[in-house]
Amino acid sequence: MLRFFRYLGPYWLKVILLIAAIGGQVWGTLELPALMAKIVNEGIATGNDSVIWGIGLQMLGCTAIAASCALVASFYSSRVGAAVARDIRDDVYQKILSFSIAEIDKFSTASLITRTTNDIAQVQQTIILCLSMLLRVPMMAAGAIYEAIKTAPDMTWIILLAVGALLVSAVAIVGLALPKFKIFQELLDKITLLTRENLTGLRVIRAFNKQSYERKKFEKENNAITRANIFINNVMSFQVPIMTLIFNGTTLLCIWVGISLLTTNMSYLGDMMAFMQYAIQVVLSFLFLVVLFVLLPRANVSAKRINEVLKTKPKVIWKEKTKGTPEKSPSVEFKNVSFAYDNAETNALEKVSFKAEAGKTTAFIGSTGSGKSTLVNLIPRFYDTTKGEVLINGINVKNYAKKDLMKRIGLVPQKGVLFAGSIKSNIAFGNSKADVKSAAEIAQAKEFIEKLPKNYDNHIAQGGTNVSGGQKQRLSIARVIAKKPEIYVFDDSFSALDMKTDAKLRKALEPATKSSVVLIVAQRVSTIKNADQIIVLDQGKVRGVGSHKELLKSSEIYREIVKSQFSDEEYKKELKDAR
Predict the structure, then answer these.
(1) Which domains does the chain carry?
(2) Which residue, 73, 64, 111, is CA-closest to 92?
């Protein structure tokens, strides 16, 4: 938790003003009991009205100063706390953006959301309390103890007794609640994960009539977090009555001891009243300190979770500047590439080698789990190779600056992603100066866009939930076309299109990509039949390379794929044409 106080650096002037305001508040508060003792002993006891009025006005002045300083302190603590939380949130978000897919998978999306929202909110609340209370409490306690000893030294044992009781109760409460704080935050992660998963997969849940099953899963986690919360609240609920008992007990003890001393010296009345006020200030100070120390463990759990994100070093480390001069003619080359996911027993890719050149289409086909998507994920460095090299324009991707590499690559992922906004903003996402209409026309999206009420200004919901799968896919393709990259990567991006639209799109795509490298991952043979180079993958290994006709002659695996997708007559015709 202490590490986050370094974020106070940019706000040092506000912190100094905050400390000054707290000092003024403490001074004003501590002056009041001394003035009250003076007004009792010198004014009320002697019946001197001028003294009463004079000291009374001084008390009003001290009260006004203390109140004004308290308002200033509250203002600056809130402002600084909110600014620090904003800075932490920015840093966490920037860190998450730097993560490779491996780090995202390690934490899970739901956990990262919780850490960016709930955990930072916990830290923000504690920083505000620390700024307002942790600075004021020691100053107030030290000043009140000094004044109490100076006013009535024979009653100081009462303060020691009260402080001891407060500390013992605080240790007991914190000791019971601390283990549950961490469990509570972990359970909150699970609740966020389940909620996100269920809302995303709502259609599938309804289609399989699994509402009851998912409800039971949610209820199980919900009951667990409720039990943890109830335990924490039950433990914390003891705090108020215990503190109230100590507070009232201290007051009564001061009155009882003070009255017994008044029997021998009536002039002690003012000092007794002042001491009682100082004792209350000491108890209140430690009371606030106890509240803070009870809240700190929970904030500390949140702080550790945030630090886990901030301290995680991405496996993919980017160069600040591209090392070397890329070739002018675009190309993608894999040299003996092997790759394994974390904790996997076998490689997802094994010694893959090929070269894709500008003006040519290279396609990848294979059964599910053959490594097609894994292969294309290595091109934009979503993961780094375990062995071997991936070269873009003759330079290893590890030697590129991130911005330089990404501007060369246009990726349409397996699952099309659209952002909340308009159709125009989604297509122009990678190129603000793009010819949106031309890109939409090539992607075969123009027809359905122009039927919408606002055409290209029509609203797109978050995740593209208000458009069909095929429309989402075409808009994703249009976005990449608008970017005009050197390398087009289509990761099974035509799967939601009908055969006619697929054919029209690929035909329109040819002139737009004639000087670029085109990589296509596909399940349908018809999509890649005319590719210049088809690479057949099986269990992460290259089992065949060539054109459609060449592979029909040389690759048994490719023939099986073709046979599974074509009728007997069509298959025989394909074999005949290949001879």
Answers:
(1) 78-311 (1.20.1560.10), 327-408+485-544 (3.40.50.300), 418-484 (no CATH)
(2) 111
Reported as a single tens digit per residue, the pLDDT across 166-214 is 778 777 777 777 777 778 777 877 887 788 777 777 777 777 777 888 8
Which neighbouring-strand residues pair with 395? 392
Q: Are 475 and 464 in contact (CB under 8 A)?
A: yes
DSSP notation for 310-368: HHPPPSSPPBSS--S---SS-EEEEEEEEE--TT-SS-SEEEEEEEEETT-EEEEEEST
β 487-491/517-521 pair status: parallel
Nearest CA-CA partner of 122 in 1, 12, 233, 236: 1
Name the pairing type of β-strands 387-392 and 331-339: antiparallel
Q: What is the pLDDT of residues 423-482, one digit of tens each?
A: 888 888 877 777 888 888 888 888 888 888 888 888 888 777 788 888 888 888 889 888
Distance CA 172, CA 414 (A): 54
The DSSP line for 392-454 is: ETTEEGGGSBHHHHHTTEEEE-SS----SEEHHHHHGGG-TT--HHHHHHHTT-HHHHTTSTT
What is the structure's pLDDT at 393? 92
Whether the CB-CB separation of 408 and 330 falls below 8 Å is answered with yes
Instruction: Give the whole-angstrom CA distance, residue 141 versus residue 537.
Output: 73
Q: How far apart are CA 200 and CA 391, in angstroms?
A: 37
pTM over 0.90: no
